[in-house]
Specification:
The chain has helices spanning about 35-45, 65-80, 100-115, 135-145, and strands at about 20, 30-35, 45-50, 60-65, 90-95, 120-125, 150-160, 165-170. By secondary structure, it is of the alpha/beta class. The longest helix has 18 residues, at about 65-80.
Length: about 170
């Protein structure tokens, strides 16, 4: 279990003379001396937790500190889960790539897409092949067509210098 990044002051660790107090029900009590806030927390059997230490006076809340830590860790885990869980894999082809080689590349593309990764299909032109860019565009269109059952074209065909590429995302 990961710890929360910053240190949270609880009960006697709070160093301010006065605090802005929020009670256990979430009602704002107002600015009170630290001693009074600690007594309020103690009388309700809960902890006084400094939730916003960077303001003057710091904001403290009466709550169960163990539960607060648990909820913070849950939020951290949820945020981590929602982070991008994919990679961008790149497949390189040429305008004159043979049929069998293209089928092998397509199998790789399908495998990457099944693993929920995005695929960048790059097409390189060499020398005089630059005169036949429409041939390259036809190859990329064919790749998009043959993978249309498992992929969406996330980024349409683009040409940059001697390269042409598109990005496929899993359906």
């Amino acid at each position: 279990m990961k710890r929360i990044a910053r240190r949270i002051n609880v009960n006697r660790r709070i160093r301010a003379k006065e605090v802005r107090l929020i009670d256990a029900e979430g009602n704002q009590v107002g600015v009170v001396p630290l001693r009074e806030a600690l007594e309020t927390a103690e009388s309700s059997g809960l902890d006084l937790v400094e939730v916003s230490p960077n303001v003057d006076p710091p904001v403290c809340r009466v709550m169960d500190y163990g539960r607060y830590k648990y909820q913070q860790n849950k939020k951290l885990q949820e945020a981590k889960k929602r982070q991008s869980g994919y990679q961008v894999k790149e497949i390189k082809i040429r305008p004159m790539t043979g049929e069998h080689d293209l089928q092998v590349k397509l199998r790789h593309i399908r495998r990457f897409l099944e693993h929920r990764d995005k695929v960048k299909v790059s097409l390189m032109f060499r020398g005089r092949e630059m005169a036949y860019t429409q041939l390259g565009a036809a190859v990329l269109e064919r790749v998009a067509e043959l993978t249309s059952d498992v992929a969406n074209v996330e980024q349409a065909m683009r040409r940059e210098g001697r390269r042409m590429f598109m990005v496929l995302a899993p359906r």
